Structure formats: structure tokens, C-alpha cells
Amino acid sequence: MRPLRRLLWGLGVLALAIGAFWLWVFWPLGGQRAEPRGPRGGAELPTAAEMAPPLVAAPALCVGSQPGPPGAAAANAASLSTLAWSPFGKAEIGWEIYAPRIAAEIGTSCAAGSDGFAAALARWQAANRLAPTGVMDAAAFAVMLPRWHLARPFVRVNREGTCPGAPSGPDLATARADESYGGKTIQLRPAALEAYRRMTAEARAAGVLRRPEALKIYSGFRAPDVDAQRCARDQNCQGLTRTICSAHRTGLAVDLFIDAAPGFGPDSSADANRLAMARSPLYRWMVWNAGRFGFVNYVYEPWHWEWTGEPLLPGTPIASLPQAGAGSVTEPAEGSTPQTPAAASGARSRR
Ligand SMILES: [Zn+2]
């Protein structure tokens, strides 16, 4: 009878393991289900402790051994290029632009339409009190986006109604000619430039700088008064942000050449252009690795990164700054805290 007893013992352990797994998956949904937090729900923003930690190192290879919820992978594969939604207040189709960041958020290197991705998303949804469908949707994005915004010290300070101070000339370092895009003079706070150099060296070693312009800087420190003049001259103030309080005034923000679709410049926010960047090995590498060097990204703009290694300079109340040009809001731009309801989670104070 010993083999039979062993078999029964084995089956018992297996049943316990399966039971524990489903308990783990569905436990947060027991009883009352919390509403998804996020700007759309009008619920509270995550606290600093709940913010996304810096993304560290490369993901493990996708093994795809865990099946996702039935049908989820196919649904994601389709919606990746067809989902009609407005994640930043303007209509967009598909979510592939944000797929690299979403994959990092849910901790998978599996492709967005794969079973492994759906399984990872279902686990993330369960952990965040969402229905663990494994299907990417606006509700999941609405939980992710405030975290990404709040990973940026600039946004956190803005939320308090403060615009950080701008460094003066002697407190800025100038990038080398070979680090600048198009021969522009680029200035940054010295430690930010050093961090940029360390990151660039590692990206080069990783083999992700496929184009000669890759990671060259096309915008760094921008003096507040110069931004205001540019706004008036171009009749393009890119919303409140460039006019009143751009992240580029800190000397910690950089616009980097990531990639560009044919016919577009490296800073065009056309969806086709942002998609080209999202598909580049460089952006995918950045999403996973830039955090190790202290850089965080504004996800709407794959090119805009802010260095977090030093505190922002003491600021002034946003309300006290000149408000000229504030009416010309077109779309979220230039490392801004977007003004739209969907994405304004990081910028309530700006209203
Ligand atoms: Zn920028």
C-alpha cells in the first residue's frame, strides 16, 4: 500500500499548492473591492511610499511558462494597436507607445501580446485591487500613471504649488560638442551631466546606441526668461509649462535623442514618432536601466528625462510667476505635468 499512500500524499500537497495559489491571486478581491485609485476615480493619489521604485537592471528573460487568464494574451495583442482611449487627454489608438514602461511596471520582459505578459499583468492587477483579467485597459493605466508622475521630484514640488528655482550660470556645466545634438550649447548641473555620461557609457557598452545621434542631448537647462521669450516669439507656449514653469529650468532635465520616425524630428510628439521611440532598443534599455543612474522619464515624452540625484533648488509659488501665454494649451508637452484631467494627477496645484 505504500505507493498508494505516496500518491495520495502527493495529490494532497498538489491540491494545497493550487489552493494557495488561487488564494494569493484573488485574496485582495475578497469582500469589498476597492475602487481603482487614480485621477479618473477622483480617489487619493499614492503616497510617496507607494510610488514606483526606480527601475533597476535588466529584466530576466521571458520564459512564458505561466499561462495568463484565458483569452487575455489575444486581447492584448489586438488592443495594443486598436484600443481607443485618451490616456493624456487627447485621443490615441493603441497602447504600444507605453508598453515598455507598462512591462517594467508589472515586472515582465515578455512581449505585450504574450501569455507571460498577461500573467504578469494579472498578478499586478490583483496586487493593486483590480480585477485580475490580464487585459491592459485604462483602469490599470490610471493606477500606473500617478506613480510614474510622482517618481519625478519636479512633479511632487509642483503639486505643492511651487516652481523650483533655476541655477545661475556658474552652477552649470557645459556638455561637450559630441554630446550635443545639432551643435547646440547644452548646460546642466554638473552632477547631472556626470550621471548622463555614466549612463551613456553603459548604454554604448550594452549595444543599444544604434544611431550616431543616439543619446545626444538636444535640450538641457533653459533659463526661465529665455523660455518666456521663445513662447512669445513662436506663439507656441506648449501649455502652461514652458511659459510658467518648465522642468528644464532646474538644470536637471534633458531631452535626449532616442529615435525618430522617418520625416520627424527627435522631439515630435506625433504618435508615430513616439511609437518609433518606444520600439527602439534604446528606449527599452532606458526604461529598465536609467533609474540606476538617477534618471526618471515623463512617459508621454520618451525623450524627456529628469535627474533625481540632487535636490531641486528652493522655489517660488507658481501663482506668483507671470501667467502670460497660459491660455495656449495644446497638449501635454515638454516634461510638463499635463493639464488634462486624465493626467493631471501630478499637477493638481497647477489648476
Ligand atoms: Zn524636455
From TrEMBL:
Q: Where are the transmembrane segments?
A: 7-27
Positions of the region Disordered?
A: 318-351
- Molecular functions per Gene Ontology: carboxypeptidase activity
Domain D-alanyl-D-alanine carboxypeptidase-like core residues, every copy: 186-309
Keyword annotations? Carboxypeptidase, Hydrolase, Membrane, Protease, Transmembrane, Transmembrane helix
Tell me yes or no: is Protease among this UniProt entry's keywords: yes
Q: List the SUPFAM superfamilies hit by this protein, alphabetically.
A: Hedgehog/DD-peptidase
| A Gene Ontology BP annotation from the UniProt entry | proteolysis
What is this protein identified as?
Answer: Peptidase M15B and M15C DD-carboxypeptidase VanY/endolysin
